[in-house]
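Lecture 7 notes: from sequence to structure.
We start with the chain below.
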Amino acid sequence: EKPYSELHTDIKETTPVECKRLDQVLPSDEVADILKIDVEGGELAVLKGSLGLLEHGSILFVKSEFLLTPYYENCPVLGHQHIMLHDHGFRLIDMDFDHPSYVRSKTKISPSVDRRLVYGGDAYFMLDPDKNDLGPIKLHRLGAASLVFNFSALAISLFKDAGLLSGKEIETIETAITRNWTSKRLKYIWGQIPRVVKDLFR
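Predicted structure tokens for the same chain:
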């Protein structure tokens, strides 16, 4: 019946650590295909340390953990990241909510019949190809980054816009993806069964 922070976390020691901004590590004329951020509430600080790269369109895809409630002291939430990235030409394209959920107080209600509260998840942002002039190389690299996170149809559209692959090469990629049996595909098919059965009875 104690808060999560009291039960599971405790600060034993605080040690200042000198850090470099991402802008100091990667020159702005370099391109980072993917920036993955998971820093326990410090995501906005990482983005602020990347302002030079963001302003030059040097980051193409961002996967960032987010919190929906200020769990840590001085902790920005999802909206702060979304606004900052939106202001730098990014589009939020998906979110995963697979982090543990919680209840405000002890209860006999089973999770199977309750919609629990969510701490946070992971957000996926891409440099918006419809609002930025990316050029063929960046479009192609953004397509490759999209494939990493299973945004397959998006990747194909970006490859087509980039124009660096032949129609035959793009068709080969599409065919390979279509034939790939992933757990996500199996879950999708399983989830469609109730709709198919319902349509049969109409």
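Points to note: The first strand starts at residue 32 and ends at 37. DSSP finds nine helices and six strands in the chain.
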